[in-house]
Design goal:
With 129 residues, this protein is mainly α. The chain has 6 helices and 2 strands, in the order H-E-E-H-H-H-H-H.
Amino acid sequence: MRRIKTGRRAEDPSRQHAARWVEIYRLAESSPNREYCINPGDEREIQVFVHADDPSHLLRALENFVRDGTLEFIDTFGINELLMRHELKSLRASGKSYEVAVEELAERHHRSVSTIERAVRIPSKRDTD
């Protein structure tokens, strides 16, 4: 009997990402309230919970996989840059200079200073043409 071809297999990073989603949903299933907090160390207002009976997070990851070929979030809206600008603004409000604040952001996000500077730069009209 001939073996049916399955086509290309997913790369290891995608498999690891999928395994993490399975682990999260299994943890939610096994908890008494059927939910699992992904970021328990953060403030209550920004904590993200996965409920075992709500597949929306998993469906979003699968939709990303269909559209982008990866289970990871691809930021097409510039949300990461917006959040970095907000972080920069907070650091500057605490009295830090622009250079020190950018260096701190680079360290926090494991990026180079020039990458952070490009990310926090406010887009001009010319950038949108």
